[in-house]
Amino acid sequence: MTEMENPIARVRGLGSAREGGHHWWVERMTSVAAFLLYAWLLVSLLRLRTLDYGTVREWLADPWAAVPMLLLLFVTFVHLRDGLRVVIEDYVHDEGNRFFALLLVNFLAVGGGTLAIFSVLRIAFTAGGAAAGLR
Amino acid sequence: MSRNPNRPLSPHLTIWKWGPHMAVSILHRVTGAGLATVGAAALVWWLAAAASGVDAYRTFAGWATSPFGIFIGVGLSWAFFQHLLSGLRHLVMDIGAGFELSTNKFWANITLVGAVLLTAGLWLLIFWSHL
Fold first, then answer.
1. E strands, B25-128, in order
2. Which of A93, B48, B55, B83 has its CA 20 to 30 A from that of A85?
3. Which residues in chain B are closer than 8 Å to A87, comparing Cβ atoms?
4. What value of ipTM does the predicted structure carry?
């Protein structure tokens, strides 16, 4: 079949993974978001002074803690999945092993992230009434 | 896909003389992989325990405050600060700045020193606030 396009027109922005700079860009975006959200988490946890059961639940029952925590978890698990993917693509050379390693990373990231987000939601929706006397 | 095993390969880690820039580059991956596995597991365990109940949280807190847990915690916090600082350095390099040899080496060293200082500072603060 005759190619009517200049080869560069088909390749530009695509790269060997066929999706251009999207993955690279998402990794940078999530890194900046993670920087801000982890600065918030570190300051918040240090301000709590103690991390016992009641303190942590009362803290996460407040929307001003639960919402940034949910954002932090989303950003964390997207960023760690993208990061581990690059490491696997660079060092796991066998096609079959690479496929299963990427599958495992995706399953664990989605599973772990969902469990963490569900936990925060559960505390946010159930601990508030008991801890703060149904404000 | 078939691959010719005798194809020319670019030289890998083993033949280069180690410098701070190279160490920081590979540390960024090592700390990232550690945080993504051990760190993420600890984060999920902490939140799931807090959502499950007092007993589950007591089990988590027992592990976290044991000598082994503190060892893991110090390691994770160092990995966190190292990954954070080398990540910031990478963001600057993504803009195309900081590639001059001396500048590059200087900031690589700063991330190594900074990560150790921030880790020490964090744990001093934690132990000091619990005295």
1. none
2. B48
3. 29, 32-33
4. 0.87
pLDDT for res A19: 65
* Residue in B33, B80, B129 closest to A49 by CB: B129
pLDDT value of position B114: 98
CATH of A23-132, one of 1.10.3470, 1.20.1300, 1.10.150, 1.10.357: 1.20.1300
What are the pLDDT tens digits along chain B (131 aa)?
Answer: 577 878 877 777 677 788 898 899 999 999 999 999 999 999 999 999 999 999 999 999 999 999 999 999 999 999 999 999 999 999 999 988 888 989 999 999 999 999 999 999 999 999 988 76
For B125, which of A28, A46, A60 is closest by C-beta distance? A46
Chain B residues whose CB is inside 8 A of the A51 CB are: 61
Residues of A with CB under 8 A from a CB of B: 28, 31-32, 35, 38, 42, 46, 49, 51-53, 56-57, 60, 73, 76-77, 80, 83-84, 87, 95, 109, 112, 115-116, 118-120, 122-123
Q: Which among B80, B92, B75, B89 is positioned nearest to B32, based on CA atoms?
A: B80
Largest CA distance in chain B: 63
Residue B3 Ramachandran class (φ > 0 left, ψ -120 to 50 alpha, else beta): beta
* Strands in A4-88 per DSSP E: none
Look at residue B89 in the predicted model and tell me its pLDDT.
96
State the pLDDT at residue A131.
47
Domains in chain B, start-ordered, CATH in brackets? 21-129 (1.20.1300.10)
